[in-house]
Amino acid sequence: MHKQIFVNLPCKNLPASKAFFEAMGYQFNPQFTNDVGASLILGDNLFAMLLTEDFAKGFTSKPIADAKTSTEVLVCLSCESREEVDSLVAKARAAGASVPREPQDHGFMYGHGFEDLDGHIWELVYMSGSPGQR
């Protein structure tokens, strides 16, 4: 099967987006980062490529969605604990993210999320079991 994932996300202001994620404690792979794209390291073999809108347009013939007015993708990342979920949302908020929803507690799964500077939705979840378990 697949060995890595690269989620490509267009950004209106790449330096601001990089600063936002750095404020949350994330790092970028300098080997794949330049003036038009930045490789955000999310975990082992998990990456988001933050691309300037002009550069992103070179990969598709479709218009680039405005993530502040429409949803083109929901990025969901697993976390090690409820505390990690809440900590990352707090860091995102402090760095300028909006947090449009309250946390969701489904017993076996706890989640919360934020919208980054471009409006991309990042969901964070901690799963302590499977449905039906509490």
UniProtKB/TrEMBL annotation:
InterPro entries in the record = Glyas_Bleomycin-R_OHBP_Dase, Glyas_Fos-R_dOase_dom, VOC_core
* Gene3D superfamilies with a match to the protein in the record: 2,3-Dihydroxybiphenyl 1,2-Dioxygenase, domain 1
**Superkingdom of source:** Bacteria
Q: Tell me where in this chain the VOC domain is found.
A: 3-127
Q: What is this protein called?
A: VOC family protein
